Amino acid sequence: MSKVVVGLSGGVDSSVAAATLRRQGYEVIGLTLWLMKGKGQCCSEGMVDAAFICEQLGIPHHIVDTRDIFQTHIIDYLVSGYEAGITPLPCSQCNRAVKFGPMLQYARKTLGCDRIATGHYARIRYDETTGRYQLLRAVDSNKDQSYFLYDLTQDLLAGSLFPLGEITKEETRRLAAQYNLKTAQKAESQDLCLVEAHGSMQEFLDRYITSKEGEIVDPSGNVLGKHSGVHHYTIGQRKGLGVSAPEPLYVMQLDPAMNRVVVGSREQATQPNCTVTRLNWVSIPEPTAPIRCQAQVRYRSQPANVTVIALGEGRFQLNFDEPQFGITPGQAAVLYDGERVLGGGIIERFGAIAS
Question: At 125, phi and psi to the nearest 5?
């Protein structure tokens, strides 16, 4: 019987993943990572629900204290990013450095198991021609989480299973009810556990960053109003600016050095290109020539046709066929070829092509 360690957060998705693998004949071991203190899907009541699910399924349950790793790779990473005027994307960083990596290491070293599984909506396929594992979009396009998984390595993909990748969220709920799981009717969690734990991203950041009032200006430097702290804003934001104008205004730049928030029209917040760094090539080797593909610059943005050009030293330029709104340094640009994730990286800057 094959053994697999299932990451259990206490939510319905991971619960169904564990139950499904159990019914497929796997020897399932539940594993919950203790990420932080306080409430949230991954902590507190989440651990209790995960333990209950393991009891229901008749499988062992392990809890691993990863709070120090979470503090370094997520909380410190977020705070330093917002202080620098960027909007970091913690989920992809968390998946590789905090969840999948430590989970697989624990499975191998402590439990004698070389496979882990999670409740993510994505798919993995092995390509015999290239000898690479490919990351694919989920069947359920509304729940597809491949955008957050672009940073997984070949080793992590080789050791991972996504039991929900071929089904829809509605089918997951139906299976949870069919299996009589406690989490069958559990509400959806927040996209970000820190928001769930602290109430809002602003409340979380205000615990670490001192708010400093500054100016909201237009691209010419004309003062339009006051802001309560640069870290309270993100590029593309329209609501909550507290300034009036004849046309809608959007945040187009954050300047922590000058303690300014720059706003402009939607057209001014739209850019034809951006530079991406720390690019991880997933389904294909790193290309040696420009490639054509699609790119998503936000989780819910539509894939846009793009030309990807290597700049050297792990940096790439993305030139969009049509300018994109709200390209945000710190967020991920994930490259697709249809359903296949080619790779992804962190947006370093937007605007003119870097040299």
Answer: -135, 140
